[in-house]
Design brief:
By secondary structure, the chain is mostly helical. The protein contains 7 helices and no strands.
Length: about 90
């Protein structure tokens, strides 16, 4: 038997709260530690100024979901692979 509606609601609320509180600079630094080849291609001044459009262009959302999100958001992760394939969802 799958998760209940209450469990799904709680998981989605947890995810939304996590997104609101995300530290984009720290998340990008963690991703670079996992993928060191990206390090030379990032303008850290723009990241520190929190230029979100720039950050979204260098942050690999699918890698984040694969490494971090699937552990932190087990229930929500079930739907993410279907949604993340849509190009506009990565922005």
């Amino acid at each position: 038997m799958g998760p209940s509606v209450e469990n799904l609601d709680a998981a989605i609320k947890k995810y939304v709260e996590q997104v609101k509180a995300i530290d984009v600079v720290a998340e990008l630094k963690e991703q670079v530690q996992r993928l060191p080849s990206k390090k030379d291609h990032i303008d850290w001044d723009r990241v520190e100024r929190q230029e979100l459009l720039y950050i979204s262009s260098v942050f690999d959302l699918s890698k984040w979901w694969h490494v971090v999100g699937r552990k932190a958001q087990v229930i929500v992760f079930c739907a993410v692979p279907l949604i993340i394939l849509i190009p506009s969802s990565n922005a």
